[in-house]
Amino acid sequence: MTDVLMAETASGGENGHESPDPREQAGVAPARRRLQVLEPSSLVPTYVGIAVVAIGFALIAIAWAKVAALTNVALQLPYVVSAGISGLAVVVCGVLIVNVAAKRQDAAERARQMERLTSIMAELKEALGTGAGRAEDG
What we know:
Blueprint: H1 2-11, H2 22-38, H3 44-68, H4 73-137
C-alpha cells in the first residue's frame, strides 16, 4: 500500500496536480507571523515592554552596585548619569510600551464586542421585522 501511495506522490497524484512550491509556502508563514505580532490583540508587545522594564531595572542595579562602593560624589556621578538615569528612562519607555499594548488590546476587545452587538441587533431587527410583517398579514 505504501508503494502505491509513494508512486502516486512521485507521479504528482492521481489527477496529475503538483503540490505547491515549498518556497511559496515558506514565504507565507513568516508574513503571517509578522501580521499576528502586529495585531492589536497580540500579547507580544506586552512581553517586549516587560523585557524593556527589566533591562531598565538591571541598568539601575548596575549603577547602584558601582556607586555603593564609592564615597566620593565626583566619582559616583558618571555611574548615576550613564546607568542610573538611562535605566530610569528605559523603565519609563517599557512602561509606555506595556500601557500602549494594553490600550490596543482593550480597543480590539471593544471592537469585537461592538461587532457582536451590531450583528445581534441586526438579527433582532430582522426577527422583529419578519414577525411584525406576519402579524399584519394575518
